Amino acid sequence: MSRVKTLQSLFKRYRRPGDIVFAWFALIVSVLLLSQIADQTVWRNGGKLFAQPRFWPAVSLGGMALFAAFHLLGSALSERLEGRWQEVWLWITALEYAAWFIAYAAAVPYAGYLPTTLLFALALALRVGYRKTSTLLAAAVSAVIIVLLFKTFLKVNLPSGLIYESLPDGLRQIMLTYF
Amino acid sequence: MLARWDVVFALLVGSIGGVIIGAIPGVGPAVAIAILLPATFSLDPIVGLTMLLGIYGSSMYGGAIPAVLINTPGTAVNALTSYDGYPMTQRGEAHRAVSLSYSASFWGGIFGILCLILLSPVLAMIAPMFGSREIFLAALLGIILVILAHRGQIFAAGLLAMFGIFLQTVGLDAVTYTQRFTFGQSFLSSGVNLIVVVLGLFALSQAFFLLSAPDSSPDAKPVTGRMGAGIKELLKHKRVATVASGFGVILGMIPGTGEFTAQFMSYTYAQKTSKDPDSFGKGSPEGLIASEAANNAVPAAAMIPLLALGIPGEALTAMMLSVFYVHNVIPGPQLFQNNIDLVYGLYFALIALNVIVMVFLLFATNLLTKIIRVPTRFLGVLILLLSFVGVYSLRNSLTDCMIAAGFGVLGLILKRLNLPIVPIILGMVLGGIMEVKLRSSLPRLKTPLDMIDRPIAAIIFGIIVLVLALHVRTLIKEWRAHQPEEDHDLHDSQTR
Asked: Quick one: which of A41, B347, B409, B417 is 20 to 30 A from B448 by CA?
């Protein structure tokens, strides 16, 4: 019993709900990656250990697995907190915004930077619960400012939309160059 | 160099933009620098670096405003400022607290830059003594310090630092031309891009965090009174300001420690030496000065290992390192010999930005109190739109956006769990340095002991052993006292 208490006092720590889920996930990923090291890296016969292409992946994955195991141990020995699965659900719901981001990135080369940014700013503002005209207007103005700043003035490397090709000659050139 | 209009413009945009970004809780310099990083690649190194330095150096000035007025630090490193700043606001001394924090920030900022300038000849002399072995050992020391600095979360920090080191090994090995952990996927052959990871972990994760959390809109009241009054009061406490700045400089130079440790040490010092220690945490001007002077002295000091050795001490300087690389300016021993103009240009830019920020704040504080009121979910929308510019402009790749989104979700989980993000970035940067330097030093090593047969290498190795021994000693002492380490919610500040 005293040994268990000693172990607890060594590894017990402050944590938050969902910590043990992350700890298990980190350990499983580390071990899975480590198990692939022979397939995914090469060992050069006759070469020095430190110069092997496998050396640093092995060190880092070995370290990851070791630290993940200790992190899990600490999590398991610490006081259990309520709300683990609500927290995990929140992580999952955040994937929706990751999908918004990817959809936005996928749409720009087709619909053009200005229209897509304007549309996404308004749609996302509505999605997160803004209904007041002034807030939606602010979102639209912010979107236009972002486009003007980065595409028009700073000329950041962003694609022109395919949709611009269908515009009349003069306008097309302006849209392709600045928006 | 600073007479160029584009440099002056970058300095103005960076320093004023940095104050504004710092003043908005939920944005912070890491998000802003991550987003602007790709935009600076097309600029001259001095222009791009000046803009990023401006944001880095000035954000903490702005971060003090919400810390003092609404008890919410604008940037993570202003957390201690709220301890004494907010109680002063509650008793109707908001203008005194704000002006005192500006003055202390200015004192710390200028002190840090003067130290950097005075240390330059020493750096120029010592830096060439750093060969591959020494830089490898210094990077190893950096990794160890980054892990040990996260007290109470050492295993998580170690796990994430190792994950960062692993990430930089993915792709084609540049020496042996063999694939590592690409799983036959062509998009992984070129490796995992640092900027994509940075944007995901810092910017997108913050957008996801703000969008997922309930909406809130801080209410900061306007400040009335003369902002210049703080300078007079600061001079009464110049000892605290100077010692706190000293802590900022010393700890800023050490990779992995930075503003947090400097603040805690200077605050403790100020309290222990104060005539009125009981007032700390209840609106003590000395506490406020200690916090602000220490954290503003760090940016200049953090440039020392970056410029002299090419080793970043924290995430923001790691981002700046990539700007140097893009422009083929390699920080390290050769920089002081080949590019001394750039180094001095950066020093003067740092001084100028502190002056610009101070003048701006003397007149624009009330404007900033209005900006603070931006609702959090609205900020989330803006950060998401801006993150796209950062990720997509790198190489117009949808795959990069997907990878960044993945790291964004990982960053959100880490923030929710109060686990540190910085070890991943430093693992990626320092891991790459360690691999390259260890390989290049191998031909000169016959036995492992040859690694430390030069004075500087032996000193760094001695420091590594000492750091590890001291940590083990602390653990044994704590274990004997049956006081397991408690997390102090330090990283909680990264969610703001």
From this structure: A41
CB atoms within 10 A of CB B48: 23
Of B159, B378, B485, the CB nearest to A130: B378
Determine contact: B166 vs chain A, CB below 8 A.
yes
pLDDT in tens, A52-101: 889 999 999 999 999 999 999 988 887 777 888 888 999 999 999 999 99
Residue B431 contacts A where some CB pair is shorter than 8 Å: yes
Q: Within an 8 Å CB–CB cutoff, is residue B212 touching chain A? A: yes
E strands present in B195-239: none
Q: Which amino acid is at B288?
A: L
Q: How far apart are CA B496 and CA B488, in angstroms?
A: 16
Chain A residues close to B42, C-beta within 8 Å: 154-157
CA B316, B322, B324, B329 torsion: positive or negative?
positive
B403 CB near a chain A CB, below 8 Å? no
Cβ separation of A129 and B377 shorter than 8 Å?
Answer: yes
Q: CA B42, B43, B46, B52 torsion: positive or negative?
A: negative
Side-chain-side CA neighbours of B363 within 13 Å: the count stands at 6
What pTM was estimated for this model as a whole?
A: 0.83
Picking from B153, B207, B418, the nearest residue to A97 by CB comes out as: B207
Residue B171 DSSP SS3:
strand
Q: Which chain A residue lies closest to B181 (C-alpha atoms)?
A: A40
> Tell me, what's the ipTM?
0.91
- Is B242 an 8 Å CB contact of chain A? no
Axis crossing angle, helix B285-309 with helix B238-253, rounded to the nearest 10: 30
Q: CB B330: neighbour CB atoms within 10 A?
A: 14
CA angle B438–B441–B444, rounded 5-degree value: 145
Asked whether the predicted pLDDT for residue A5 surpasses 70, the reply is no
Candidates A40, A61, A71; nearest CB to B155: A71
CB-based contacts of B443: which residues, under 8 Å, 6+ apart? Answer: none
Listed in order, strand segments (DSSP E) in B231-371 are: none
Who among B382, B401, B434 is closest to A101 (CB)? B401
How confident is the model over B355-381, as pLDDT tens digits? 988 888 888 877 777 777 788 899 899
